[in-house]
User: Which sequence fits this backbone?
């Protein structure tokens, strides 16, 4: 075979190979037809632009908006029983008691809860606030009726009963401003051995006045204070 013929065959093979390769490229790119359309890219391929992230990221889906719930007004829970308001405590009751009564011979007197006769001292000052002038040894012989609260009353007008402050700061019970005392030498409840002593000590009546019955001989009664 001549050299010229062999060259022509080689050129023809090369040309045919080139055509085949060209057809393959045309098929892969789709550029050989004017009616071809570009392949559409989905949102998944492109991502969603804007507030949801960069291109190429999957879209972020928002939950559908929900209607606002109606706010139910909550009532404050009821306080436990032990924390609920308690009624005010009752005022303390004094252990001291005054009893106004009439007794044989003496007439109207005031006694304490044990039946001891009570006295007043003419040298005390009943007005305007009440003042006791029986202190020190005098208060040993004539013990004052002491109480931090108004005593229980029977037969005595509560409007006449008060508490006065002694020199030592203690509270003493008084009737119409007159401080009350017992007598340490009374032999027994219901007796009145202290009546008229020193012309200044007298059994007290429920209205605060002196009882001048059963006076010892020679007792001088000063004008009523």
Assistant:
């Amino acid at each position: 075979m001549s050299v010229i013929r062999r060259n022509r065959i080689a050129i023809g093979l090369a040309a045919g190979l080139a055509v085949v390769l060209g057809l393959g490229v045309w098929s892969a790119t789709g550029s050989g037809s004017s009616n071809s359309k570009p392949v559409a890219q989905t949102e998944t391929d492109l991502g969603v632009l804007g507030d949801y992230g960069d291109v190429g990221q999957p879209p972020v889906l928002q939950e559908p908006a929900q209607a606002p719930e109606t706010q139910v007004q909550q009532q404050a829970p009821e306080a436990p029983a032990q924390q609920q308001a308690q009624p005010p405590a009752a005022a303390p009751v004094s252990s001291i008691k005054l009893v106004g009564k009439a007794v044989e011979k003496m007439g109207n007197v005031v006694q304490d809860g044990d039946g001891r006769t009570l006295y007043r001292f003419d040298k005390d000052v009943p007005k305007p606030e009440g003042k006791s002038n029986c202190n020190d040894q005098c208060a040993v012989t004539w013990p004052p009726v002491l109480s931090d609260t108004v005593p229980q009353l029977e037969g005595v007008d509560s409007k006449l009963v008060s508490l006065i402050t002694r020199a030592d700061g203690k509270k003493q019970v008084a009737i119409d401003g007159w401080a009350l005392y017992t007598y340490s030498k009374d032999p027994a409840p219901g007796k009145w051995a202290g009546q008229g002593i020193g012309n200044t000590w007298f059994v007290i009546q429920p209205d605060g006045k002196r009882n001048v019955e059963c006076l010892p001989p020679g007792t001088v009664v000063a004008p009523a204070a």
User: Anything to note?
Assistant: The first strand starts at residue 97 and ends at 103.
